[in-house]
Design brief:
heterotrimer, A alpha/beta (284), B alpha/beta (276), C mainly alpha (207), A: 284 residues, alpha/beta, Rossmann fold, six-stranded parallel sheet, 11 helices, 6 strands, C: 207 residues, mainly alpha, 0% strand
Chain lengths: 284, 276, 207
């Protein structure tokens, strides 16, 4: 694996090496003005990696209950009883966004469950690249659940990249197909309330999650359960209980402790007129 | 009496949402037809953005991001219009970019309408580089060269041939970036163009996004903000050209009061319906 | 290899972009620039794929005579018409394509956005209840901010705008910062898992 990575890096870098000028000598090997970012990154990533390794040795890490994720089974069970489909919206942005990646991870788990219960899963998507990713996720999940025959690529489809046309399309799906469970998990913007409120009128159980702080109030108002901010990123760990992911979540918590400590230290130092710490944390 | 209040409370709690919709519609439409003319107070953040644009010398290259789609036009188009009026009046070199496919045409229409009022010429005083797919990748590409990210402008003319782009290669050559956006593009510009390349950043946003940008304003990562229709109205006031946003503030005032009325009604229904 | 290759590509691309942030060597910058260029090409090309997908999905549903097939026919007609108008007549100012965009699509989208005002009002009526002390404080803050952001609020009491600004700049900002920082750490952890090849959820694979 490592050799393949090295080979690929070389292949990717070769055109650059071939065309690079010999003026490199004056460029240096490290942007010293970004040393503070590097140190912070090493610190935070180091903590996360430490817990990743620890999780491999001790897989029994505890994670607090997240109501929205516990209700996932309840929502899918409800859809099974009613014989109605499940709607999953993996955010309204493309796969270059981390929240979309997090949403896709949850989509995989939801797809496994819907495959096991043989209920239709609708996944309307706003970007074509996200569509191919979602199709691959759902196909793999259906295959893993032993029901590859149930996978219908027409149900995981690109609708439009236009924000409100997409919201109108999703609202139309909710009003026509009447899914029993709606999942809004990913990155959302102004269309969130249109979709959540429409789903609310259909009586579906709704679980939402986003790291966009501006949209959380709308989801909290219109949905039954809402994952706040980083609970969305912890969802993969919560649902799969994979030790590595649990370790990552644990590492995140300690990283937050480090950040909180830095903030506290900065506040105290500022109060006493020591501004050097603030300068240390400025990104250049 | 008590049971009458309780039954009223229960009935009010089940109020048909269409009645709410009708009242909101009336609250918005009537003030647009019957002008009230409430005085507008300006905010420090909008003033800061205006002052920054005002301080730039003639010929300074500035980038104006049109990062909204037609859905957000009523709130954000007055901002870009006012900014264009101001920038053209100051004879700045205006470079327009967008992350949305349909917004190139919206920007073009505004440019063609406003630029001639100040004698500004396309390609010479301003350029519409149009839309490029890729979001953050485009911002990173501009860090190498505008011509890499935008080899041609919105009309297919080579960017390198435009006199307005003379000496403007990367973000470091841009003296101000104002992104009028309804989405996350402002965060991307702050994180990449602002943090890495030191471009002063201003923004215009929808009202719902205002709270999240206060952190950037307080930390100095953003120098000014136009928030929602109010922000647009403030800028119209600064440049002395009241327009759609200023006219809409009366409607917004009445609509906010109407929503607060319904919230109060809902709580009254909630408490009365609970009484024993 | 089918599962390994995407992971390797993801890792390699991520590390090159990361290195570009810290290492000023031209060969690193050139590699990153090449990757970014490929991203732009892929993004643009994906829209062609998306258009074909829309066409294929809706055509298959029309053939199956699913309920609402007549709306899908209308969608396909509009898709084809706008595509032809754009290709044949161009998309600049003065073209038919541009006229339809400015006079049909723009008002339609603005209308959809305007629905938010009605939805917010009905959601506020349904959800804003003073069930406990915290909910009451939240409601009062919401009222102050709503009145502080419009001229009428300033006319009722001159303190509304400054009080609203204080709420947005202090307690609200404190909560926002906490959310943003938490989400940023979560995003960092997800990105780290992508960089070391542990995160496979986007492929439908379990870790």
């Amino acid at each position: 694996m490592r050799r393949r990575v090295a080979l690929l890096l070389l292949l990717l870098g070769w055109p650059a090496v071939a065309s690079a000028e010999e003026a490199e000598a004056a460029a240096g090997w490290f942007r010293t003005e970004r040393l503070n970012v590097f140190v912070a990154l090493v610190l935070i990533c180091g903590v996360i990696l430490i817990f990743l390794r620890r999780a491999r040795r001790d897989p029994h890490l505890k994670i607090r209950r997240i109501a929205g994720l516990t209700a996932l089974d309840e929502a899918i069970g409800r859809a099974t009883e009613m014989g109605r489909p499940v709607l999953f919206v993996p955010g309204v942005m493309d796969v270059d966004r981390v929240e979309t990646i997090a949403g896709m991870a949850i989509l995989g788990e939801v797809a496994r469950k819907t495959a096991a219960y043989a209920i239709p899963l609708e996944v309307p998507v706003r970007y074509p690249l996200a569509m191919t990713t979602a199709q691959e996720v759902v196909r793999s999940s259906y295959a893993a659940a032993g029901r590859p025959d149930l996978f219908d690529p027409n149900r995981v489809r690109f609708v439009t990249d236009n924000q409100f046309a997409y919201a109108a399309a999703v609202s139309g799906i909710m009003l026509r197909d009447r899914p029993a469970a709606n999942f809004f998990l990913g990155e959302f913007y102004a269309e969130s309330l249109v979709m959540a409120e429409t789903g609310n009128t259909t009586g579906a159980i709704q679980i939402a999650g986003t790291a966009q702080a501006a949209q959380l109030p709308f989801f909290i108002t219109a949905c039954d359960y809402t994952l706040l901010g980083e609970e969305l990123f912890a969802a993969g760990a919560y649902l799969t209980r994979a030790p590595v992911l649990l370790g990552s979540v644990k590492g995140q918590d300690y990283a937050k402790v480090i950040i909180a400590a830095a903030i506290a230290a900065g506040v105290v130092l500022e109060i006493f007129g020591v501004t050097g710490f603030k300068e240390l944390l400025t990104v250049r | 009496m008590s049971s009458a209040l309780r039954s009223w409370g229960n009935a009010a709690a089940r109020l048909d949402r269409r009645i709410i919709f009708l009242v909101i519609a009336a609250a918005v439409v009537v003030p647009l037809l019957v002008k009230i003319g409430l005085p507008l107070r300006t905010s420090a953040y909008a003033q800061a953005l205006y002052d920054k644009v005002e301080s730039l010398p003639e010929g300074t290259p500035v980038v104006l991001g049109f990062d909204y789609d037609p859905g957000s036009m009523p709130e954000l188009a007055p901002m870009t219009r006012s900014l264009l009026h101001h920038m053209f009046r100051k004879n700045l070199r205006v470079i327009v970019i967008t992350n949305y496919p349909q917004t190139g045409a919206i920007a073009e229409r505004q440019l063609l309408e406003i630029a001639p009022l100040y004698g500004r010429r396309p390609g010479i005083d301003f350029a519409n580089l149009g839309y490029k797919a890729g979001n953050e990748a485009v911002i990173l590409a501009v860090a190498n060269d505008f011509r890499v990210a935008y080899p041609t402008d919105h009309h297919g003319v080579p960017t390198d041939s435009l006199p307005v782009m003379a000496g403007v290669h990367t973000w470091r050559d841009v003296k101000l970036l104002v992104d009028v956006a309804h989405g996350a593009t402002v965060n991307n510009y702050i994180r990449i163009a602002g943090a890495r390349y030191g471009v002063p950043i201003g923004a215009g946003c929808t009202a719902v996004s205002i709270p999240q940008y206060h952190s950037y304003l307080q930390s100095g990562q953003m120098l000014g903000l136009l928030g929602g229709l109010q922000g647009a109205a403030e800028y119209e006031q600064f440049i002395g050209r009241p327009g759609f946003a200023s006219a809409g503030m009366d409607a917004q005032s009445i609509a906010h009061v109407a929503i607060l009325f319904f919230v109060a009604l809902g709580n009254a229904a909630f408490f009365l319906g609970r009484r024993r | 290899m089918r599962k390994e290759l995407p992971i390797i590509l993801c890792m390699a691309s991520g590390w090159i972009i990361m290195l570009d942030f810290f290492v000023p060597r031209p060969f690193v910058g050139a590699a990153a620039e090449a990757l970014i260029g490929w991203t732009l090409i892929l993004s643009a090309g994906s829209f062609l794929m998306g258009g074909l997908s829309v066409f294929a999905v809706n055509l298959s549903r029309v053939r199956r005579r699913d309920p609402g097939a007549h709306y899908r026919i209308l969608l396909l007609l509009c898709l084809g018409t706008m595509a032809l108008l754009g290709i044949i007549g161009g998309i600049g100012e003065g073209t038919v394509y541009n006229w339809i965009f400015q006079n049909v699509q723009v008002p339609m989208e603005s209308t959809m956005f305007s629905l938010l005002a009605f939805f917010i009002a009905s959601a506020a009526y349904r959800a804003f209840r003073m069930r406990n002390a915290r909910a009451t404080v939240l409601l009062l803050c919401a009222a102050v901010v709503m009145l502080g952001n419009v001229p009428l609020g300033g006319a009722i009491w001159s303190g509304f705008p400054s009080f609203s600004l204080w709420i947005l700049g202090h307690p609200s900002l404190a909560a926002q910062r906490g959310l943003i920082l938490g989400a940023a750490v979560g995003a960092t952890a997800t990105a780290l898992r992508l960089l070391v090849g542990i995160e496979r959820g986007y492929l439908g694979l379990r870790q």
